[in-house]
Amino acid sequence: xxxxxxxxxxxxxxxxxxxxxxxxxxxxxxxxxxxxxxxxxxxxxxxxxxxxxxxxxxxxxxxxxxxxxxxxxxxxxxxxxxxxxxxxxxxxxxxxxxxxxxxxxxxxxxxxxxxxxxxxxxxxxxxxxxxxxxxxxxxxxxxxxxxxxxxxxxxxxxxxxxxxxxxxxxxxxxxxxxxxxxxxxxxxxxxxxxxxxxxxxxxxxxxxxxxxxxxxxxxxxxxxxxxxxxxxxxxxxxxxxxxxxxxxxxxxxxxxxxxxxxxxxxxxxxxxxxxxxxxxxxxxxxxxxxxxxxxxxxxxxxxxxxxxxxxxxxxxxxxxxxxxxxxxxxxxxxxxxxxxxxxxxxxxxxxxxxxxxxxxxxxxxxxxxxxxxxxxxxxxxxxxxxxxxxxxxxxxxxxxxxxxxxxxxxxxxxxxxxxxxxxxxxxxxxxxxxxxxxxxxxxxxxxxxxxxxxxxxxxxxxxxxxxxxxxxxxxxxxxxxxxxxxxxxxxxxxxxxxxxxxxxxxxxxx
Length: 510
Hints:
Layout: H1 3-56, H2 59-72, H3 76-109, H4 119-125, H5 129-144, H6 148-170, H7 178-210, H8 224-262, H9 267-285, H10 290-308, H11 312-339, H12 341-349, H13 353-361, H14 365-380, H15 384-406, H16 413-439, H17 445-467, H18 476-505
Helix pairs in contact: 1-3, 1-4, 1-5, 1-6, 1-7, 1-8, 1-9, 1-10, 2-3, 2-5, 2-8, 2-10, 3-5, 3-8, 4-7, 5-7, 6-7, 8-9, 8-15, 9-13, 10-11, 10-14, 11-14, 11-17, 11-18, 12-13, 14-16, 15-16, 17-18
């Protein structure tokens, strides 16, 4: 197994664990905070995400790309210089951001139209911003060297610490006011980040000691200015993408709730609907996306290295592998979420109302899974500016759709789902077109036809199950296992059939 697939597998297994932990945490939070508390929690998270994005300055992606290029040229001295320059830049920015964000938050809390309960979780997590920034540098370092084990272990430790904090702390806060329980939920994120930083730091120091010091003296020193130029060429457009997404996520709660109020829905109902959509339906819908994130982390250095070596064969192979892996998990997950949406939301959140939201999201959820590998490919190819510009236009159109549809009583919260689906489809198409334009990528149509044929057969099976009222006598867990087994079994046999046809088609050499 190659380095790329091995790294993706390691990260996927680690992310599977972390996603399971996040599921458990979300269930614990939902039962402790309720719909209104989850609404406040989900409204605070995008703002926190914006702070983290600015603090990290998307240096993990930039470091991953630049270090992979230096590794291709075996320039060890430049590698350490890049890490040092990145560290000083991020630490200075993080400390400045802590001071500015604290002042802004305190000023906003004095505004009468802002619910003071929303400010407490923001103030609680602001001191953790430098920790997150430093951790992001070390994460980018290991990713650039294509060493995925430290990243995977750090994720395991981070989520375990998060779960432990939530489990032990919230049970002692049952009788406290809602705002204090929301603060405790947010502090759990900070506890996980601290544990992750300790592990990354230990791994980095141990790795540098055991790697030897003579290799760093072979190459001439590289100026800090040239290092910053390389980093910012990737970092600034990539940060722009993250900030745009974070700003959109931070503004969306206000736009959505206000649009729903304009449509005639009460404030309490609007908050509950927003909580069910984002905390329940989207959590389930985006759960399989951890594989896409693993692909993202592995693809950026792999694509950068192949492009630096001008190895077009390896470049096209990585793109094919990324698409195949995404279709391998994305198609069956989309089918399952459409046909068994109610059962899934009831199983995990005891919320049958959220099932309708999940069912409407599921037909287009595959495009959201594709976004991570598509963006990773473009970042690796040096087309970060295209990702930035395309994200701007799609986010603007998405906001316009939210305001247009959600404010109408005939659509309501369903208008938000239309906007989410639209943005995922359009952005994926734009990214794919840019990749084809850059590397003249040609998809293997027969491979994708096999994926679609397997999906069509699985859809027929799910439709048959619903007509025979399977739920009266079979557990949903068993049903899901059967559906996935049928999809992968059909895919396997179609692959064998394709292989047999290709052997018949190719004429033997005389």
